[in-house]
Amino acid sequence: MEYLHYIPIATTLISILFVITLLHRAKGRGYPAHLVWWAFGVFFYGLGTAIESTITLHGNTLFLNRLWYWAGAILGAYPLATGSVYLLHKRKVANILTGVSLVVVIAGTVGVLLTPLNAELLNPVKPDGNIIAWTWIRFPVTPVINTYAAIFLIGGAIQSSFKFFETPELRRRAYGTGLIALGAILPGIGGTMAKVGVEGSMEAQGIVEALYIGEFLGITLIWWGYELCTSAPRPIEGYAGIVEPDLGGTDEGGTDQDSTIQGSALE
Length: 267
Hints:
By secondary structure, the chain is mainly alpha-helical. It has one domain (2-153, 178-221). The chain has eight helices and no strands.
């Protein structure tokens, strides 16, 4: 399965193009918080796969493995979820949620940067979370961060997909948000297999190739869903409870055709 180790190269290239797309859209809208956070999210997504690409081409090191865990496990989904928080909630609520969750993310970041590494477990051709000596980073810190991300990124997208599907004029958005939800789920499945492998033990060697496949399919589906949402006809106010977003810095949230990576609507 060595050929699968080259998949992150393609994933990195897709992520770079996606970041450029998001920043271009954000620039034209005054850099609203949700688009900026999503751009950060795709950047760290791509950083993780770029490290995987480097390991494939040049071999693994303790430094690269540490950086890989930080970019992927700690920051892989959190910025995307934070973008969704700012989209779905009033600014004050989003600031509180982000402030509280950042405490956990910062703790995880410090832990990853300071933890001793089990050098004897280093795989020379692929990264592995088992080299992290402080197991509290892998559990419970990492699952807490990723559960938070799943609630707002995946949960919001699924809710939006069902809501948009109720209105025929918004079916394109329903399909788009459905793809985004599926794309967000796949790296999580791959990441779980990379952590626990087929034996279900965190001490066993994980299947990192499953993560590579999940990451590639995930970012592809998320971008596809994003394009479906942003190219859909602009919704008429009142459909599916949609309100116009606040892009000017007040504390109202919302969505529109151009800011719908998630496509959620506020009641």
